[in-house]
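User: Round two. Same drill as before: sequence, then structure, for each protein.

Assistant: Same drill it is. First protein:
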Amino acid sequence: TGSGQDGGNAPATTGRSTTLRLRESDLDLIRKTLHACGGNVSDAAARLGVSRGLIYRRLRAAGPTSVSGPH
């Protein structure tokens, strides 16, 4: 205890795969919130407690299939 080692019981995931799953989860939450807000990015950002820019960056990084409606 206190050694910082897990004794081999840690899940076999890399930081990269964990980050990828987290981003996918974030994107899913953003999409659902945007849908609930009728596509209004300002309202979705306020509900999520993030900036509009963050929402736009995540959607842009996910690719064109994640953005619905005109740009």
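Second protein:
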Amino acid sequence: SSFPSSQYHVVDYDALVKDTQGTLDATFRWLGLAPVPVHSTFVPTSPKRVEDSIANLDDVRAALRGTKWEI
């Protein structure tokens, strides 16, 4: 069984690193809270794109084809 989208909020790590304030503002609003200024020490952990780090990327793409996670 899955949860209705109103019951969960997805936070993408790459978005959190790239735009911490904007990502957390959206999270605060989803929680019904007023956004507040935040500070983060998040930094990218790899200079590579995720796609360049996956050895079996073709297999992953094939497995995800046709799903909402298709890449």
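The helical segments are 13-18, 20-30, 50-53, 57-64.

User: Perfect.
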